[in-house]
Amino acid sequence: MKKMLLGFILLFAQVLFAQDPNSRVKFDPFRAKPGQEITITYNPEGSPLAGKKDIKAVVYTYENYVWQVNDLAFKEENGIWKANLKLSNTCGMLSVKFKSGELEDTNNEFSFSQMLIDDTGRFAPGGYAGWGLMRASNFGYGVKNYLEKQNISDSAVYFWLNQEISFHPKEASEALSVPFCQALFKMQGEPSLVRVNRVVAFLKKSPTEQNLMRLLSLYQHPLNNKTTSDSLEKVILSTYPSGDLARLKAYQQLNFERDFGKKIELCKAFLKQFPYRDADYTFNEKRMVNYTNVYLSMAIQAMMQKGYASLEKMSAELPAISIPTIYYKCIDIAHKRKDVDDSQLLAPARAMVKRMELFKNQRPVEYWFLSPNEWAVEYEKIFNQNLALTQIGILRNTGNFEEAMDLANRAQKYFMFKSAMLNNEQALLLDHFKKYDLLQEVLVKSMHENQSSPEMLDLLKKDYIRARGSENGFDTYVSGLKNPELASKELDELKSIMINKSMPDWTMKDGTGKIVKFKDLRGKTIVMDFWATWCVPCKASFPGMKLAVEKYKNDPNVVFFFVDTEERSPNYKQEIMQYIKENNYPFTVLFDNKLPTEKANDEVFNRICKAFSISGIPQKLIIDKNGKLRFITVGFKGSATGLADEISAMIELTKKAE
After folding, report:
1. Is residue 478 located within the same domain as residue 511?
2. Which first-to-last residue range defines the signal peptide (predicted)?
3. Which domain does 82 fall in, by range?
4. What is the pLDDT of residues 284-299, one digit of tens each?
5. Which residue pairs from 313-316 have beta carbons closer than 8 angstroms and sit at least 24 positions apart in sequence?
6. Distance CA 161, CA 634 (A)
């Protein structure tokens, strides 16, 4: 009977994996063995990659019940791509993904895969399991970002894992015990517990730390035996005081601690007893032991105590995945709010950048699911989007111009003039070095992408006057630099999101104490910008809003109100008016109303949020002459000129609205 079953399974799998003559991928030998070299041939005709000349490939191999991800070097000849791959001696199956830029060919999520065979002709260890788990993303044992739309049934997962354990019990029984029992219980429910208990009995025969943790998982679910699981926890903690469970318990304790001082002490003790190790990644990921949270608490304390030296020291041990978050919370926000002088931020900021650079050519374990080439692309994205822009500003502000210039040139290769913040920094640096030819190039390309700042407009005007002797015709010149296709596309997008809704009535006071009533503004186009002093993107958008205000300063039928909301400081009104004056903003400030029962001045904003199901600031509303809301925009995209043009376009569309 067992031989008949084996024959049926092999026949079924051979039919399933039969090499289709019409397939875009061919494997030679068709049924490879572990340790062999295999030739993979790819014909992109009929795929999303047809006609592409820069096709790359990623290979996923299942080795010793662990996924490995690598690049595959393909060579093209007459439209056909070939690569040779030396399989490891422990490989059970392989799968290949083909790429060209953002396009991918995964055989419509069915994959291009092969299960290997051993010397007896059976599928090699890992073949059954890899094929099942790769397509079951809800079990969490597949490959991130690959076949994530695939989710085969619980019974199918059970089938493949059962075959793996049946034919390779020595290799698979321990490694797959937990996912096997999970699949079995999902498929059968209570009747499965008899067999789950047999798995428990098997694991007890070899009480290693890993097997004890597997037992604990099974006692918790699906057996739901709290008494036994509590007892087992005590045994594990006693036997392995610095093991996985001890780390989990220590993390849970600090994570749930609400007293910040006590939390910091727990964090220090945690990192001393359980320093971050790559080897712990899989357990930490599955049990949600988040080292970023631990380091972030420590970093916040350092910032609160002005312990910049301790923050610098801590940066040398941060995991790659933690660096962007901690840099943002401790460096980026402080730099943009000007809470801390850049001279004090420089050392810890440099330390974090240096730490991140160590991972550039060494894929961190947290990104195991990316091939080395994919990691190189992802690294540049993470580095430039999360660290580079602020770092350039800090370096420039502290007089490290050469270092800032080098970093700006590198970042521009990634952003390609689509970041106003970078364009501004690079322009200021080029102006400092008096490299006017390069400065002109940056200014023109930035304006073409509509990613410029008021400072850049001033530099552009200086260059224009230097070349022409006067500023006559400058506005026409600037308009001519902008990409008309981009402007047309943005206008079409704005037209598509235009609305026509009734606005709630409101009455607020301005900075002089004068009462402003919504009902008195009929006949005017109104721009309301909700903001707060603590909101970094709110204040970052003000240079662009200033450009818009100045454009309409002579139009009596367009009014701008900068509505300050959600403030808690007792002296916020004086502080705000001083801020507006110091920055020379020609803004009419309105102060949101504060209800007696509330701590913040947010009465009008809360009513508007409820009326239109919105939240968050900066929030800009464009209202027509009849008091109808026509546009809602949230956030700030980063470009002052882009924002000014967007506001201007919305105003003009609103003016024409019936």
Report:
1. no
2. 1-18
3. 1-152
4. 999 999 999 999 999 9
5. 313/351, 315/348, 315/351, 315/352, 315/354, 315/355, 316/351, 316/355
6. 48
CA–CA dist 237, 244 (Å, integer)? 9
DSSP 635: S
CA distance 218 to 46: 47
What pLDDT sits at residue 17?
53
33 close to 119: Cβ distance less than 8 angstroms: yes
Amino acid letter for position 256: F
Q: Do 434 and 581 share a structural domain?
A: no
372 cis-preceded (ω within 30 degrees of 0) = no
* Those residues with Cβ within 8 angstroms of residue 415's Cβ, 6 or more apart along the chain or in another chain: 384, 422
**Average pLDDT, rounded, for the chain:** 93
Q: Which residues neighbour 95 within 8 Å (Cβ) at sequence distance 6 or greater?
A: 59, 60, 111, 112, 113, 114, 134, 146
Contact 237, 224 (CB under 8 A): no
**Residue-wise DSSP of 363-412:** --GGGTTS-HHHHHHHHHHHHIIIIIHHHHHHHHHTT-HHHHHHHHHHHH
Q: Are 526 and 561 in contact (CB under 8 A)?
A: yes
Which of 152, 178, 195 delimits the end of a domain? 152
432 and 529 housed in the same domain: no
Both 513 and 618 in a single domain? yes
468 shares its domain with 593? no
Whether residues 147 and 88 fall in one domain:
yes
Taking the CB of residue 111, how many other CB atoms lie within 10 A of it?
19
**Tokens describing residue 230:** 């509590």
Please give the pLDDT value at position 487.
87
Q: Sign of the C-alpha dihedral, residues 569, 573, 578, 580?
A: positive
Q: Is residue 378 part of a domain?
A: no
Q: What is the CATH number of the domain that holds 539?
A: 3.40.30.10
Domain count, the chain: 3
506 with 595, same domain: the answer is yes
- Of 96, 92, 94, which Cα lies nearest the Cα of 71? 96
Cα–Cα distance, 299 to 308 (Å, whole number) = 9
pTM above 0.85, yes or no: yes
Separation between Cα atoms, residue 251 and residue 290, nearest integer Å: 8
DSSP state of 123: B
